Amino acid sequence: MLSALALLAATAGPANVLLVTIDTLRADHVGAYGDAKADTTGFDRLAREGVLVEDAVSHVPETRPSHASILTGRYPYEHGIRDNAAGPIAPGMPTLATLLKAAGYDTAAFIGAYPVSRSSGLDRGFDVYDDPFEKAVDGRTERRAQEVVDRALGWLGRPHARPFLTWVHLFDPHAPYTPPQPFASRFAGRLYDGEVAYADSQLRRLLGWLDGSGQRANTLVVVTSDHGESLGEHGEEEHGLLVYDATLHVPLVLSWPGHLPAAVRVRGQFRSVDLLPTLLGLLGLPAVETSGASRADVLARGGRIPDNESYAESLYGAIHFGWARLRALRSQGWKYIEAPRPELYHLGEDPGELRNVLSSREAVASGMRQSLGRFGGGVGDKAAAAPIDQGALERLAALGYVGGVGSAVTVTGKDPKDGVREVERERQGMREALRLFKQNDIDRALPLLEELARGKTGSFNVEFYLGRALLAKARPREAIPHLRRAMDAAPQATTTAVYLAQAQLAAGLDQDAAATVARGLERSPDNPDLLEMKGRLLLRQDDAAGARAALEKAVGLAPRNARVRAGLSDAFRQLGDFTRAESEAREAERLDPDSPAPRVARGLALAASDREAEAAEAFRSALKLAPENPEALYYLAAVELNAGHGAEARRLLHKLLAVSPGYPGADEALRLAEAQPGSRDPAAAQTVTAGEGTAHLRLIRVASRPQAEEVLRQLAGGVRFEDLARSVSVDASAPQGGDLGVVLLSDLAPPLRAAAEALPPDGVSGVIEIPGGYALLRRER
To answer: What is the pLDDT of residues 591-608, one digit of tens each?
Structure first.
C-alpha cells in the first residue's frame, strides 16, 4: 500500500513554496498556540487550513545562525555560523534555495534586517536576494515588514513559467518594540504583541495575494521563527545569551490545501534542521544528507513525530565576553544544559524551566550528558573558533546588539546565567543611548555611553558609538581612544576606520589619519567613505588634483553619498572651478537636506566666488541645523570679519572656542576680530545686549585640574580674576583679562552654561570640566 506521502507526490505537480520567517516570535504569543489576546489571524488561519507543530524548536537563539540551520538542515557547528557576527556558511553546503533552483524553481528572498544579509552566505541559490543592507550608504540595518512584503509582492506578481520558492523574512518583533499605528495604540503596554500583530498583518497580505492570484492551492506555505524572546524570564529580557525554551520554542505551521490535512495539530519534537528534508519530502524531491530527518509522511497523515534529540547552543557569552559556552540537549520531555553549573529540567512537569532537578535525577543527567557528547560544538571544536565578521559588528551595533571587544576579551569561563543581568543592563542602556543618538540628541546619549564604557563587559558598540558621539560634539581628541579600542576589537571594520580617521583629522593629527586611511584602503580599496577621507587629506596637502581623483572614484561608487559630494565640491573649489563646486554642494544638499556639511561646502564655494552675502546665508542655514557646528561657526565668523562686523565675528568665535577649544585658526581669527575697530562696542554690531538670558562673563581656561584648583586657591587669597586670566589662561580672551563681554547663555557649551546660570553677580564658579581642559567663570555685575 502506498503511504500518504507517496500518494501525495504521485498526484501533485511542482508546487510553489512560500517560506515566511517571523523573527523573534515566541510560540506562546500566537493565538493558535493558546494566547487568547494575540492578534495573529493570518497564522491562525493557516493553522485551521493546515498542520500546526506543537513542539518546534530551534538550535540557537540568534538570527543568523538559526536561519542558517533552517535553510541548510545543519547544526551551527556544521554550517559554521555560531553568532550573528560570524562569517558566511561553509562553502559548498547545499541550501533550500540551491536545491530548489537545481530542481527548476525561480527563487527569491526578501529580508528584513542585516543579520541575514548577503554576508551570511544565505543568498546562495537565490535568483533575487532583496537585501538593501549590505551596501547601504546610510548604514541602514532593518526595514518594516510592509516594505519587505511590498517588494515580495512586486516579484510574485511577475509572470513565472516555473514554480517559485519565495522566502520572506519579517524582523519586526525584534527589540526595540516600536509597532506602527494603529498597533502601538491597540497594544499599549504590550508592544511586543503589537509588533507580532503588525507582522501577522503583513503575512495576511501575502496570503491575500495567493488567494487572489489563484496560486493558493498550488503553494506550500510554511511559517516559522528563528527563535523566541525571553521577555524577562530567567533575567533575560531579549535573547541570545541563554538557552531556555523561552527563546528556543518556536511556532511552525505548514499549509497546502488538498495535500496536507487541515486543522491538525502534530505532537512530538520538530527541530529546525528537520525543515529542509521535510520540505524536500513533501515536494517529492530527492533527499540530501542533513542533520535532520524528513517528517513529511508524519505531517501528511497527521501522526506523531518520533522521539528524537535536539541540540542547542549559545556561544554569545563565550565569543563576546569570555564566558563559558552553553550547550543543551532536549529529548523525551527532558532538557539538559551543559554549563559551569549544569541544569536538568523535566519539561512536562516544569515547562518554564524553574526547578533544576539535576541533583535528584543524576542518572538522567548523566545519560543526557553522554548523549550531548556525541554532538559537535564542545570545547576544542574547530568551528567554535570561527572568525567574527568584523564589518558585521558595526551593523549589529546599529541594531543595539551588545558585543564584547574581540581580542581584548578576558576569558573567565563565567556561567552566563550569572552575568545575564549585567548584559541586560548594558543592552537596555545601549538601546536607549542608540535611540537618542539616532535622534541626534547627543547631549543625552553621551553620558549614557560614558557610563556604559565604565562597565565590566567591554563592548565594541559602546566604544564605537561613544567615539562617534564625542566626535559629533567636536571633541575629537577624546573620541580617538574610544575609536582605537573599537578598531582593536575589529581591525578589519572599515566604518570604524573612517570615524577614527575623521577624529584624527579634526584633531590635527594628519599623519595618523593618513595612516588609518591607508590601512583601511588596503583592505577595502573601493570603500567610498575611506576614499572621501583620502580626498580630504589630499586637500589639506594642497593636492587638489589627487583629491579630485579620489573623490570622483568615491562618487562613482556611491553617487548618493552626500558627504562624498561635499568633499568633491571642496576639491573643485580648490581647483578654481567654482561653478562645479557649487553644483556638487547643491547636489549633496539635495541628497541630505538635514546635514550641515553640504551647506558649509556651498558657503565656501560662494565665498570663493566673491558672493559673501550668499555664503553667509549658507553658513547660517547650516547653523540652524547644527547650532554648534564648528566649521559653520568659523567660516561665518570669517565672512563677518571680512565684512567689518568685528563684534559679530567675535561672538561667533567665542562660541566656537567654547564648543571646540583649540579649533585651528580660531585664536588668530579672534585676535583679528579684537583688533578690528568697533569690535569691542556692543552697539556697533547690535548683536548681544544685557538682559534676560545673558551675562557679562570672564573666563580662565587651563589644561589640567591641578592648575584650575591652584587658580581657585589664588582667587581665595585675593588675586584678581582678570590678573590670573592674563597670566595663566590659555583662552583667546586672556589678553582682555578673560573678558567675554555680554554673552547669550544659550551660546555656551552645556557645562559652562549650567555654571554661568547658577552664578550670582561677582560670583566665581568652581572648577568646570570642558572639552580639552578645565575652566572657571566669573559673572560681572
So the answer is: 999 999 999 999 999 998
